[in-house]
Amino acid sequence: MLDLAIVGGGPAGLSAGLYATRGGLKNVVMFEKGMPGGQITSSSEIENYPGSAQVLSGLDFMAPWSEQCMRFGLKHVMDEVTRISKNSDGTFTLSLAGGKSEEAKSVVVCTGSTPKRAEFEGEAEFFGKGISTCATCDGFFYKNKEVVALGGGDTALEEALYLSHICSKVYLVHRRDSFRASPSTVERVKNNPKIELVLNVSVKKAYGDKMGLNGIIVVDKEGKERDIAVPGVFVFVGMNVNNGILKQQDGTFLCDMDENGNVIVDLSMKTSVAGLFAAGDLRTKASKQVVCAAGDGATAGIQALEYVNHHA
Amino acid sequence: MGKYLELNASNFDSTVAEGVALVDFWAPWCGPCRMIAPVIDELAGDFDGKAKICKVNTDEEQDVAIKYGIRSIPTILFFKNGELVDQMIGASSKQVLADKINSLL
Fold first, then answer.
1. Burial of residue A201 (number of CB atoms within 10 Å: 0-12, 13-18, 19+)
2. Contacts of A159 (CB under 8 A, 6+ apart)
3. Which residues contact A30 (CB under 8 A, 6 or more apart)?
4. Are A231 and A157 part of one and the same domain?
5. A137 classed as catalytic
6. Which residues are annotated as site, described as Contributes to redox potential value (chain B) (predicted)?
7. Which stretches of B3-93 are DSSP H helices?
8. Which residues of A touch B103 (CB under 8 A)?
9. Which one is catalytic: A79, A134, A154, A220?
10. Are the beta carbons of A134 and B94 separated by less than 8 Å?
11. Is the pLDDT reported for residue B1 higher than 80?
12. What is the separation, in whole angstroms, between the first and last Cα of chain A?
């Protein structure tokens, strides 16, 4: 029986593990299917983590976290958790891919979110064959070629800027004429001679051949079409929350969720189920920032420690 | 404990020609690739003598990446006796990759 199971190895999961183990919990396992670090490891840069003045890639930024967070005995298991359920004695069962399972007195869920698809015709067909959601991973394959960045938020604009260093031209395609991204980023994009803004359009379809994507057709509000012939399209249209492991066999969720599928927590990261905590992007009203996820994780770790010591 | 095989333009074809091979196309700057690196290491141990677990550094072996139409990493290709039989794009779990290899053995 584990004292605490942490599901997810991003900033929230690592911080929860650090605080729980440093606080004295002995048997704490973080389930993460590969190397810890989370979603931020796909970002080209992080410049808003307080105390870290040097601008680093997400990968370099997260590298020391694992080492530090494992220092007090946090164990990392590379199994994938498929479901969390509550037992009649108040403990939890974590079902693992491959049929095994693990029992725990308390659980911190911090499975984060994954990039959303834009849902246009041909997107699924050419995903990985020209359509990507990771500029730092795949920008390299479009060196000195033209690409599209799709979206209007911080991620879309920051990654468009990143791509402009590698590619000959970046079409920033957005369905409105204003951006949700921070004003300083919008300014940098507008002043970048390699970025062309293609605004007030939606993507009608992607086209290509056996070798992969050859371009997209966009359509404006009057119905006028434009063919943008590019081998690469990067989609940054938001995130889907990874709440699947909380779904029970009968289709209901283990704990209360909000209308967007995020876990409802209080200020202590407690869910509606005793002993179950949620932290990071998965929880309701998350700011979806590394520093916030880390703060949530620390809170959840402290609360799990308190729960195991006094209730479990 | 087995170690994964590092493939390049000169040893790629001969390595995948016989038996079952998993080939992970990756690069050092790719977060999801680094994420699955320990999984590939473990698979190399688990399937030692049964299947070939291989990696291609797309930064160094661009010709190989182009030959297989790699435009997104990680991309994992599965070969049986030299024939490309399946592929997975993105970071998959160890269980999913192991199941795939077992289904080809």
1. buried
2. A44, A135, A149, A234, A236
3. A6, A7, A8, A9, A13, A14, A17, A36, A74, A75, A76, A77
4. yes
5. yes
6. 31-32
7. 12-16, 31-46, 62-67
8. none
9. A134
10. no
11. no
12. 11
| Domains along chain B with CATH numbers | 5-100 (3.40.30.10)
B74: preceding bond cis by omega (within 30 degrees): yes
Return per-residue pLDDT of chain A as tens, 312 residues: 999 999 999 999 999 999 999 999 999 999 999 999 999 998 888 989 999 999 999 999 999 999 999 999 999 999 999 999 999 999 999 999 989 999 999 999 999 999 999 999 999 999 999 999 999 999 999 999 999 999 999 999 999 999 999 999 999 999 999 999 999 999 999 999 999 999 999 999 999 999 899 999 999 999 999 999 999 999 999 999 999 999 999 999 999 999 999 999 999 999 999 999 999 999 999 999 999 999 999 999 999 999 999 986
Q: Which of A60, A137, A227, A266 is catalytic?
A: A137
Set of chain A residues whose Cβ sits within 8 Å of the Cβ of B95:
79-80, 97-98
Is-contact A194 A211, C-beta < 8 A? no
For tokens 């498929």, name the residue: A82
| Residues B63-85: tens digit of each pLDDT | 999 999 999 999 999 999 999 99
Q: Is residue A120 domain-resident?
A: no
Q: Are residues A14 and A43 in the same domain?
A: yes
Which pLDDT value is given to residue A47? 86
Question: Which residues 288-307 of A have a C-beta within 8 angstroms of B?
Answer: none
- Together in a domain, A10 and A60: yes
Is residue A132 within a helix (H) or strand (E), and if so which, with residue range? strand A131-132
Question: B residues 24-43 near A, CB within 8 Å?
Answer: 27, 29-39, 42
Domain limits at A217? 131-237
Sheet holding A232-235, edge to edge: A131-132, A232-235, A146-150, A169-173, A195-198
